[in-house]
Design brief:
This protein has 283 residues and is of the alpha+beta class. Helices cover 28% and strands 35% of the residues. It has a seven-stranded mixed beta sheet, sandwiched between helices. α4 crosses α6. The longest helix is centred in the C-terminal third of the chain and has 23 residues. It is elongated, with a radius of gyration of 22 Å. The termini are far apart. The mean pLDDT is 95.
Protein backbone atom coordinates (compact mmCIF):
# COMPACT_ATOMS: atom_id res chain seq x y z
CA UNK A 1 0.00 0.00 0.00
CA UNK A 2 1.22 3.48 -0.85
CA UNK A 3 0.31 6.54 1.20
CA UNK A 4 -0.17 9.56 -1.05
CA UNK A 5 -1.44 13.06 -1.42
CA UNK A 6 -3.99 12.20 -4.12
CA UNK A 7 -3.92 13.14 -7.77
CA UNK A 8 -7.21 14.45 -9.22
CA UNK A 9 -8.10 10.94 -10.39
CA UNK A 10 -7.29 9.43 -6.99
CA UNK A 11 -9.31 12.13 -5.27
CA UNK A 12 -12.29 11.22 -7.43
CA UNK A 13 -11.84 7.61 -6.33
CA UNK A 14 -11.68 8.81 -2.72
CA UNK A 15 -14.98 10.64 -3.10
CA UNK A 16 -16.54 7.50 -4.55
CA UNK A 17 -15.22 5.44 -1.62
CA UNK A 18 -16.63 8.00 0.81
CA UNK A 19 -20.01 7.83 -0.83
CA UNK A 20 -20.24 4.04 -0.88
CA UNK A 21 -19.21 3.62 2.76
CA UNK A 22 -20.42 6.78 4.51
CA UNK A 23 -23.46 8.03 2.62
CA UNK A 24 -25.09 5.39 0.44
CA UNK A 25 -25.93 3.06 3.39
CA UNK A 26 -28.07 5.88 4.83
CA UNK A 27 -29.82 6.55 1.53
CA UNK A 28 -28.11 9.89 0.95
CA UNK A 29 -27.80 11.36 -2.55
CA UNK A 30 -24.63 11.54 -4.59
CA UNK A 31 -22.79 14.75 -3.74
CA UNK A 32 -23.50 14.49 -0.01
CA UNK A 33 -20.03 12.99 0.45
CA UNK A 34 -18.43 16.38 -0.32
CA UNK A 35 -18.60 19.85 1.16
CA UNK A 36 -17.36 23.35 0.44
CA UNK A 37 -13.96 22.78 2.11
CA UNK A 38 -12.58 20.14 -0.28
CA UNK A 39 -10.35 22.52 -2.25
CA UNK A 40 -8.61 23.97 0.81
CA UNK A 41 -8.43 20.74 2.83
CA UNK A 42 -5.52 18.29 3.07
CA UNK A 43 -6.35 14.85 1.64
CA UNK A 44 -4.51 11.58 2.06
CA UNK A 45 -5.20 8.21 0.40
CA UNK A 46 -3.82 4.70 0.51
CA UNK A 47 -3.51 3.04 -2.89
CA UNK A 48 -3.08 -0.68 -3.58
CA UNK A 49 -0.78 -2.29 -6.14
CA UNK A 50 -3.39 -1.88 -8.88
CA UNK A 51 -3.62 1.86 -8.23
CA UNK A 52 -7.02 1.68 -6.54
CA UNK A 53 -7.80 3.93 -3.58
CA UNK A 54 -8.63 1.69 -0.61
CA UNK A 55 -8.58 4.24 2.21
CA UNK A 56 -9.10 7.97 2.49
CA UNK A 57 -9.25 10.76 5.05
CA UNK A 58 -9.30 14.55 5.15
CA UNK A 59 -8.01 17.34 7.38
CA UNK A 60 -9.25 20.91 7.35
CA UNK A 61 -8.50 23.95 9.49
CA UNK A 62 -11.07 25.16 12.03
CA UNK A 63 -8.97 28.03 13.41
CA UNK A 64 -5.31 29.09 13.25
CA UNK A 65 -4.23 26.34 15.67
CA UNK A 66 -7.04 23.78 15.47
CA UNK A 67 -8.02 21.33 12.75
CA UNK A 68 -10.63 18.66 12.16
CA UNK A 69 -10.34 15.22 10.58
CA UNK A 70 -13.34 14.03 8.59
CA UNK A 71 -14.42 11.39 6.08
CA UNK A 72 -12.21 8.55 7.29
CA UNK A 73 -13.07 5.47 5.21
CA UNK A 74 -11.35 2.12 4.54
CA UNK A 75 -12.52 -0.36 1.89
CA UNK A 76 -14.16 -3.31 3.74
CA UNK A 77 -11.87 -5.84 2.08
CA UNK A 78 -8.81 -3.93 3.27
CA UNK A 79 -9.89 -3.46 6.88
CA UNK A 80 -7.99 -5.13 9.71
CA UNK A 81 -4.59 -4.32 8.19
CA UNK A 82 -3.83 -1.15 10.16
CA UNK A 83 -4.66 1.15 7.25
CA UNK A 84 -6.87 3.39 9.35
CA UNK A 85 -4.09 3.93 11.88
CA UNK A 86 -1.61 4.66 9.09
CA UNK A 87 -3.98 7.15 7.49
CA UNK A 88 -4.68 8.87 10.81
CA UNK A 89 -0.96 9.21 11.54
CA UNK A 90 -0.39 10.76 8.11
CA UNK A 91 -3.11 13.35 8.68
CA UNK A 92 -1.67 14.16 12.11
CA UNK A 93 1.76 14.62 10.55
CA UNK A 94 0.28 16.97 7.97
CA UNK A 95 -1.40 18.90 10.77
CA UNK A 96 1.92 19.36 12.57
CA UNK A 97 3.63 20.46 9.39
CA UNK A 98 1.01 23.17 8.87
CA UNK A 99 1.35 24.49 12.43
CA UNK A 100 -1.78 23.02 13.99
CA UNK A 101 -1.66 22.18 17.70
CA UNK A 102 -4.99 20.40 18.22
CA UNK A 103 -7.10 18.00 16.20
CA UNK A 104 -10.71 17.15 16.79
CA UNK A 105 -13.10 14.78 15.06
CA UNK A 106 -16.56 13.29 15.29
CA UNK A 107 -16.27 9.54 15.84
CA UNK A 108 -19.08 7.11 15.18
CA UNK A 109 -19.85 5.42 18.47
CA UNK A 110 -18.53 2.04 17.34
CA UNK A 111 -15.15 3.61 16.45
CA UNK A 112 -14.47 5.42 19.74
CA UNK A 113 -12.08 2.71 20.96
CA UNK A 114 -9.97 3.03 17.80
CA UNK A 115 -9.36 6.72 18.44
CA UNK A 116 -8.89 6.36 22.19
CA UNK A 117 -6.13 3.82 21.54
CA UNK A 118 -4.36 6.51 19.52
CA UNK A 119 -4.45 9.23 22.13
CA UNK A 120 -7.80 10.91 21.46
CA UNK A 121 -9.96 12.01 24.39
CA UNK A 122 -13.73 11.49 24.37
CA UNK A 123 -15.15 14.97 25.03
CA UNK A 124 -18.79 13.92 25.12
CA UNK A 125 -21.74 13.60 22.75
CA UNK A 126 -21.24 14.88 19.23
CA UNK A 127 -23.72 15.32 16.43
CA UNK A 128 -26.27 12.76 15.29
CA UNK A 129 -25.82 12.17 11.57
CA UNK A 130 -29.03 11.85 9.53
CA UNK A 131 -30.98 11.71 12.82
CA UNK A 132 -29.83 8.14 13.37
CA UNK A 133 -26.01 7.75 13.62
CA UNK A 134 -24.63 8.86 16.98
CA UNK A 135 -21.17 10.39 17.25
CA UNK A 136 -18.75 11.34 20.02
CA UNK A 137 -16.66 14.49 19.91
CA UNK A 138 -12.98 13.56 20.31
CA UNK A 139 -9.73 15.51 20.35
CA UNK A 140 -6.01 15.28 20.98
CA UNK A 141 -3.15 17.75 21.24
CA UNK A 142 -0.08 17.62 19.03
CA UNK A 143 3.47 18.31 20.32
CA UNK A 144 3.28 21.93 19.18
CA UNK A 145 0.90 22.69 22.05
CA UNK A 146 3.52 21.75 24.66
CA UNK A 147 6.12 23.80 22.78
CA UNK A 148 3.86 26.86 22.84
CA UNK A 149 3.18 26.36 26.54
CA UNK A 150 6.92 26.49 27.24
CA UNK A 151 7.25 29.61 25.11
CA UNK A 152 4.34 31.21 26.98
CA UNK A 153 6.03 30.56 30.32
CA UNK A 154 9.35 31.99 29.19
CA UNK A 155 7.76 35.09 27.67
CA UNK A 156 5.51 35.92 30.60
CA UNK A 157 7.16 34.45 33.73
CA UNK A 158 10.88 35.38 33.82
CA UNK A 159 11.77 32.89 36.56
CA UNK A 160 10.57 30.01 34.36
CA UNK A 161 13.07 30.97 31.66
CA UNK A 162 15.88 31.37 34.20
CA UNK A 163 15.14 27.93 35.65
CA UNK A 164 14.78 26.50 32.11
CA UNK A 165 11.43 24.93 32.95
CA UNK A 166 10.01 23.23 29.88
CA UNK A 167 7.21 20.88 28.99
CA UNK A 168 8.38 17.38 28.08
CA UNK A 169 5.25 15.47 27.11
CA UNK A 170 1.48 15.31 27.37
CA UNK A 171 -0.54 12.24 26.42
CA UNK A 172 -3.96 13.68 27.15
CA UNK A 173 -3.77 12.81 30.83
CA UNK A 174 -0.19 12.90 32.14
CA UNK A 175 1.88 16.06 31.77
CA UNK A 176 5.60 16.14 32.57
CA UNK A 177 8.10 18.98 32.89
CA UNK A 178 11.80 19.28 33.59
CA UNK A 179 14.08 22.11 34.67
CA UNK A 180 17.75 22.91 35.16
CA UNK A 181 19.21 21.55 38.40
CA UNK A 182 22.10 24.01 38.27
CA UNK A 183 19.73 26.99 38.03
CA UNK A 184 17.76 25.81 41.07
CA UNK A 185 20.31 24.28 43.45
CA UNK A 186 21.18 25.66 46.89
CA UNK A 187 24.36 25.86 48.99
CA UNK A 188 23.87 22.23 50.09
CA UNK A 189 24.02 20.91 46.54
CA UNK A 190 20.32 20.01 46.48
CA UNK A 191 17.36 21.60 44.78
CA UNK A 192 16.23 24.82 46.48
CA UNK A 193 12.78 24.32 47.97
CA UNK A 194 11.43 27.42 46.25
CA UNK A 195 12.67 26.20 42.88
CA UNK A 196 10.84 22.90 43.32
CA UNK A 197 7.68 24.71 44.40
CA UNK A 198 7.88 26.98 41.36
CA UNK A 199 8.31 24.10 38.92
CA UNK A 200 5.51 22.11 40.51
CA UNK A 201 3.19 25.11 40.35
CA UNK A 202 3.99 25.66 36.69
CA UNK A 203 3.40 21.97 35.99
CA UNK A 204 -0.08 22.12 37.50
CA UNK A 205 -0.85 25.42 35.76
CA UNK A 206 0.35 23.91 32.49
CA UNK A 207 -1.87 20.84 32.89
CA UNK A 208 -4.90 23.11 33.20
CA UNK A 209 -3.75 25.20 30.21
CA UNK A 210 -3.42 22.07 28.08
CA UNK A 211 -6.94 20.98 29.04
CA UNK A 212 -8.26 24.32 27.83
CA UNK A 213 -6.47 23.85 24.51
CA UNK A 214 -7.70 20.27 24.18
CA UNK A 215 -11.33 21.26 24.71
CA UNK A 216 -11.05 24.44 22.68
CA UNK A 217 -12.28 26.74 25.46
CA UNK A 218 -10.84 29.90 26.99
CA UNK A 219 -10.21 30.83 30.61
CA UNK A 220 -7.78 32.61 32.92
CA UNK A 221 -5.87 30.27 35.24
CA UNK A 222 -4.88 31.29 38.79
CA UNK A 223 -3.51 29.35 41.76
CA UNK A 224 -6.12 29.52 44.52
CA UNK A 225 -4.50 27.37 47.20
CA UNK A 226 -1.46 25.12 47.59
CA UNK A 227 0.20 22.93 50.21
CA UNK A 228 3.67 21.53 49.64
CA UNK A 229 5.38 18.58 51.33
CA UNK A 230 9.08 17.80 51.05
CA UNK A 231 10.03 14.16 51.69
CA UNK A 232 13.70 14.05 50.66
CA UNK A 233 16.34 16.22 48.96
CA UNK A 234 16.37 16.41 45.17
CA UNK A 235 19.90 15.98 43.82
CA UNK A 236 19.42 15.59 40.08
CA UNK A 237 17.56 17.10 37.12
CA UNK A 238 14.09 17.82 38.52
CA UNK A 239 11.23 16.19 36.65
CA UNK A 240 7.69 17.01 37.71
CA UNK A 241 4.50 15.32 36.62
CA UNK A 242 0.76 15.47 37.13
CA UNK A 243 -1.84 13.01 35.92
CA UNK A 244 -5.56 13.64 35.60
CA UNK A 245 -7.92 11.79 33.29
CA UNK A 246 -10.08 14.86 32.69
CA UNK A 247 -10.53 18.27 34.27
CA UNK A 248 -14.06 19.52 34.83
CA UNK A 249 -14.32 22.94 33.17
CA UNK A 250 -18.07 22.82 32.58
CA UNK A 251 -18.76 25.80 34.87
CA UNK A 252 -16.97 28.09 32.40
CA UNK A 253 -19.83 27.67 29.95
CA UNK A 254 -22.14 29.05 32.65
CA UNK A 255 -19.94 32.10 33.18
CA UNK A 256 -18.69 30.77 36.53
CA UNK A 257 -15.26 29.90 37.87
CA UNK A 258 -14.11 26.28 37.47
CA UNK A 259 -12.16 24.76 40.37
CA UNK A 260 -9.47 22.22 39.54
CA UNK A 261 -7.69 20.24 42.30
CA UNK A 262 -4.40 18.63 41.26
CA UNK A 263 -1.61 16.63 42.88
CA UNK A 264 1.81 17.37 41.40
CA UNK A 265 4.88 15.22 42.12
CA UNK A 266 8.48 16.35 41.67
CA UNK A 267 11.35 13.84 41.58
CA UNK A 268 9.82 11.78 44.41
CA UNK A 269 10.97 14.52 46.80
CA UNK A 270 8.11 17.02 46.65
CA UNK A 271 4.34 16.80 46.52
CA UNK A 272 2.17 19.82 45.82
CA UNK A 273 -1.54 19.65 46.57
CA UNK A 274 -2.93 22.56 44.60
CA UNK A 275 -6.28 24.07 43.77
CA UNK A 276 -6.41 26.07 40.57
CA UNK A 277 -9.27 28.33 39.57
CA UNK A 278 -10.16 28.96 35.94
CA UNK A 279 -11.98 32.23 35.39
CA UNK A 280 -14.26 32.81 32.40
CA UNK A 281 -12.72 35.08 29.77
CA UNK A 282 -13.37 38.76 30.36
CA UNK A 283 -15.98 40.44 28.22
Amino acid sequence: MKLLAPTPDQLSQAFELRYRLLRAPSGQPKGSERDELEAEAIHRVLVDEQGRVVATGRLHRLSPLRGQIRFMAVEPGAQGQGLGAKLLAALEQAAQETGLEAIELQSREDQVGFYQARGYRDLGPGHTLFDSIGHRRMARLLPGAVTRLTQTWHQTIPVSEFMQVEGVSFDGQRFETRASFERGCNLHGTLFAGAGYTQATLTGWGRVWLELQLKGVEGEIVLARAEVKYSKPVRDIPHAWVRAEELDLSRLALGRNAKVPLTIELADGLTLEALFAVLPPKG
